[in-house]
Inverse folding.
């Protein structure tokens, strides 16, 4: 339903009551404090995200998206969790950045006027914010509707509330990425940044995501699987 540039839409996501997952893993048991600290520990002390992103905020946000990390086998579920945190680590510099570098100073408002159902506020900019750096009015609008914040008139909420920040990342993941996780990590890169990192473009960027993914799979004791590139 939310088909962005390059048709980055996905199937409708409908939350189901928690406990209905078939993966047999508890996401909080996989995403331990030690795992989380291992990521954020890579960020410099001066990083704004250091005092923003917390495991508690992630666990809180997870309550709104109970299907995350519960599909397929236990190993499949762990691979999805590893993939999510690989992209988050890449997008934020291991939880260093809350907002896109120079996003506020840029002349680009990330407003696509053809999405008339998500009208831009002329005084706001929809640059990357949060764990997956949600961008563009056509993502802030529906994310706000789903999470219950004013994404179009108060996009800065994502950079001010860590629970909402993680909810935007999980919303984007469940809307655009979750349905392809069983196709390999490369499919998740294509779902997040197809025009910039697939088909041999910016191989270093894609490789950075892959290396995070391989590390986190190792942390969780699962094989990374095939089709790592896009």
């Amino acid at each position: 339903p939310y088909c962005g540039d390059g048709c980055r839409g996905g199937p409708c996501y409908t939350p189901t009551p928690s406990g209905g997952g078939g993966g047999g893993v508890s996401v909080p048991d996989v995403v331990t404090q030690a795992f989380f600290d291992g990521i954020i520990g890579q960020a410099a002390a001066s990083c704004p995200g250091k005092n923003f992103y917390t495991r508690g905020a992630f666990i809180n946000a997870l309550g709104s998206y109970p299907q995350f990390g519960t599909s397929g086998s236990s190993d499949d579920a762990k691979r999805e969790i590893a993939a999510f945190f690989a992209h988050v680590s890449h997008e934020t510099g291991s939880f260093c950045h809350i907002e896109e570098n120079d996003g506020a100073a840029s002349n680009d408002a990330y407003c696509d006027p053809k999405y008339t159902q998500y009208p831009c506020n002329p005084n706001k900019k929809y640059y990357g914010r949060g764990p997956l750096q949600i961008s563009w009015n056509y993502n802030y609008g529906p994310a706000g509707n789903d999470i219950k914040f004013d994404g179009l008139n108060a996009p800065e909420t994502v950079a001010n509330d860590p629970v909402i920040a993680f909810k935007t990342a999980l919303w984007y993941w469940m809307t655009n990425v979750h349905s392809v996780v069983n196709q390999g990590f490369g499919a998740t890169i294509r779902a997040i940044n197809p025009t910039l990192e697939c088909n041999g473009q910016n191989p270093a960027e894609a490789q950075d995501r892959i290396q995070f993914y391989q590390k986190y799979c190792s942390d969780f004791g699962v094989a990374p699987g095939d089709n790592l590139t896009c």
